[in-house]
Amino acid sequence: MQVTSPVRAPLVTSGKKLHDVTNDICKQVEGKPTKLWIVAFTISVLLLLYGCFCLYKTWTVGLGVWGLNRTIGWAWDITNFVWWVGIGHAGTLISAVLLLFRQKWRTSINRAAEAMTIFAVFCAGSFILMHVGRTWLAHWCLPLPNTYGSLWVNFNSPLIWDVFAISTYLSVSILFWYVGMIPDLATIRERATGISRTVYGALSFNWSGGAKDWQRYEQVSLILAGVSTPLVLSVHTIVSMDFATSVIPGWHTTIFPPYFVAGAIFSGFAMVLTLMLVTRKVFKLEDYVTVNHIESMNKIITLTGSIVGVAYITEFFIAWYSGVEYESYCFINRATGPYWWAYASMMTCNVISPQLFWFRKIRRNIAATFVISIIVNIGMWFERFVIIVSSLHRDYLPSSWTMFYPTMYDIGDYIFSFGLFFTCFFLFAKYLPVINMAEVKSILKSSSVNNNKS
Amino acid sequence: MSVQGKFLVGIFDDEDVLLHSVEHIRHEGVKIHEVFTPFPVHGLDRALGYERSRIDIVAFMFGTLGMILGITMIYSMMGIDWPMNIGGKPNAAIPIFIPVTFECTVLFTAYGMTLTFFVIAKLLPGLTPVMFDPRSTDDKFIVAIQLDRNHLALDKINQILKDNGASEVFEKEV
């Protein structure tokens, strides 16, 4: 029994029926790739190939090809890692946290957001593997028996916690995403013929949609959401501990875990918006991802953006209030030193730009949302850059003070991650259902225009 | 659940109609084999008289296992096998166990529970599901009644289904 609220705006417009949902979503999977898709996919693959060349150089020559120096030992690699893993958080937040809160608007965006999570974590992981230098020895991060006596990894180190957190996060996200997709893959299977029927038949795992299966499925989804929620919070908490447990001024702060988690959700929602605004336009999904969905996401961006803003200011205040000279200098140097432009970009993009969403006109405007979502992600990249590079570049010994200049390989490895991300995303958008059909169907009765009237 | 024999398949267009019909049909003494729906219909499991799923217990047990394995792993490595003296601090301190133990707990819960679900629900690649009607993954709700397991006559069941709002009823042999 579902209760229809006369107050809430419908989540699915144009009076879609159950069969329309199936048709609208399956159409993308069943049709031939469009020209636009082929062009976009080719560009991503080219970016990926260029990135692979830079990665090849990084591996064969060594990390010396990056712009790192004795003072700045971490720069773009870890900036990009934290940026990507932060982006990943929105997918889990949408599918898990909003499921626990029974937010119905999650249903049309959760699938794409979760896919985005997985691909973003791929990119994040690739930077972890790259930055160790000798990637082929990356398994040394795992507690494996080895030939050096019984020397194990050091579980005191947050970097080892990170290995566990990121790999668990990736595995559980893939599981959650895939389990949610099984019923939809069965829908595609029943419509398909020939080879694609075999493929989707294998992918849909014998699903027939019996009531007992659905009962278990819902239980599994709920528990997966329940464990994913603390998981997603733990992941960025642990990422922030990579910095917070060190004794570098500018990093050694207890505010990092909540501040990083808020920032992660902030940038993740911005990335979801960037992707969904394009996807809904290209795939003509305006009836499923409506302006109301966009507005809801913008509200979360405003909230998390404000939390991030408060965190920036608190950090500054505490640096002064602590009376620690090094800490104070680090922050004054961030804002007024040679990296002032990065700090200013961060402040403008992350703190000021989302405040525009207080205006209803702006947060319901698609073009404005698209622009701000990109600005937010630029700002969040700068935030990580500011935290990492500006804290390192002027250390305790003024004779070692220096600046960081990226080389073409720093940039190339960043391009690699974009290539990887968009190649995966375009493949997903073409060959898998971008909207969770089963879940959208389950809210259709309570949240569609057509049925509200009748 | 053996799926063989003659079935009577009733097709419904609306989930609320279905939910009430299932109750009525069962009330009339008809045994329902299974109901197939394109999306989870809340309350359908109760209407069908299914017991609650105990998969949450499985999840809890796997979580506990993961937690124990996590603690055991870290303690045996840091405390027993190769104790390290790092700045004179305890070589196996409980607080540093927390993050990795938590991740192990989550990993075991998620994978243990989901794989159990796949096995008990026979959700494995390579099997071909019995589909009474392909529309049950699209927009129709399907009630499958196994005729050999019901005492009532075919016509009688047919009539009960129709009276309860089935838009279409047909026989199917699987």
Layout of strands and helices, then pairs:
The complex is a heterodimer of chains A (454) and B (174).
Chain A: H1 18-30, H2 35-61, H3 76-100, H4 110-131, H5 158-191, H6 194-203, H7 211-244, H8 256-282, H9 291-321, H10 325-336, H11 340-352, H12 360-363, H13 366-392, H14 408-431, H15 437-447, H16 449-453
Helix pairs in contact in A: 1-15, 2-14, 3-4, 3-7, 3-8, 3-13, 4-5, 4-8, 4-14, 5-6, 5-7, 7-8, 8-9, 8-13, 9-10, 10-11, 11-13
Chain B: E1 6-12, H1 15-27, E2 34-36, H2 44-47, H3 55-81, H4 98-120, E3 141-146, H5 154-163, E4 168-173
Antiparallel strand pairs in B: 1-3, 1-4, 2-3
Helix pairs in contact in B: 3-4
List keywords for this structure.
heterodimer, A: 454 residues, mainly alpha, Formate dehydrogenase/DMSO reductase fold, 16 helices, globular, B: 174 residues, alpha+beta, 2 domains, four-stranded antiparallel β-sheet, 5 helices, 44% helix, 13% strand
Number of domains of chain A: 1
How large, in whole angstroms, is the Cα Rg of chain B? Answer: 25 Å
Mean pLDDT score of chain A: 91
Largest interface: A-B, 67 and 66 residues
Structure classification of chain B = alpha+beta
Oligomer: heterodimer
Number of alpha- plus pi-helical segments of chain A: 16
Low-confidence stretches of chain B: none
The coarse overall form of chain B would be rod-shaped
Largest sheet of chain B: 4 strands, antiparallel
**H/E element string of chain B?**
EHEHHHEHE
The CATH superfamily of chain A appears as: Formate dehydrogenase/DMSO reductase domain
**According to CATH, what is the class of chain A?**
Mainly Alpha
Structural category of chain A is: mainly alpha
How large is the share of residues in beta strands of chain B?
5-15%
End-to-end Cα distance of chain A: 16 Å
Detail the poorly predicted runs of chain A: none
Strand order of the largest sheet of chain B: 2-3-1-4
